Amino acid sequence: MTKGADTTAKANEISFEDAMEQLETIVEKLEQGDVPLEEAISMFQEGMQLSKECHSKLTSVEKKMDQILHADGEIEATDFQEEEE
């Protein structure tokens, strides 16, 4: 298994809260600026993967909440991307 695939597999198993905590840790370390370039690139890649996973989880929850909140019991598909524009 490649490192990228390994990171993706780990991200799919992690909770939203844990992913956010790891992402915050990465951001703090990168903001300090004393990380060697190669390590910073690796950390950035990991952070981007965690960010994508968090976004995916939030999008999924938004869709579930939209279905739950329909008072009449009708399920209406909503494209959240179009609403943001």
Rg from Cα: 17 Å
Major sheet: none
Q: How many helices?
A: 4
**Structure class:** mainly alpha
What number is the mean pLDDT?
80
Give the strand tally: 0
End-to-end gap: 38 Å
Order of helices and strands: HHHH
Which spans of ≥5 residues are poorly predicted at pLDDT below 50?
none
- Percent of residues in beta strands? under 5%
Give the proportion of residues in helices.
Answer: over 70%
Looking at the chains present, what oligomeric state does this protein adopt?
A: single chain
Shape: elongated
Can you walk through the features of this model?
- By secondary structure, the chain is mainly alpha-helical.
- It is 76% helix and 0% strand.
- The protein has helices at residues 3-13, 16-32, 37-68, 80-84.
- The longest helix is centred in the middle third of the chain and has 32 residues, at 37-68.
- It is elongated and about 55 Å long.
